[in-house]
Design brief:
The chain has one helix at about 1-5, and strands at about 10-25, 25-35, 40-50, 55-70, 75-85. It has about 90 residues and is mainly beta.
């Protein structure tokens, strides 16, 4: 997440949402981002709402995985975690 925060001026080349899952007061969103500089990140966001009607967010957990792509098309990962609560 720190790398995403430090790179706020980089334009997003691709943003894909792979899944949005909801159940009661909880929602999960996962996907990936590829920036203009070809840096790639996968993300998983967990949203907890104050109630099942989903109008006010109580907390957000963000899991970010930096994808390091090499010429051999292998991946390595740097994982960060952020928790926001109200």
């Amino acid at each position: 997440m720190a790398e995403l925060e430090n790179n706020k001026t980089s334009k997003v080349k691709e943003l894909a949402l792979d899944a949005i899952i909801t159940h009661g007061p909880d929602a999960l969103v996962n996907g990936h981002i590829i920036a203009a500089d070809n840096s790639a990140f996968s993300f998983y966001d967990v949203y907890r709402f104050k109630s099942a009607d989903g109008t006010t967010i109580k907390s957000i957990q963000t899991f970010t995985i930096k994808q390091n792509i090499t010429e051999e098309v292998t991946f390595s990962y740097d994982i960060s975690f952020t928790l926001y609560t109200t």
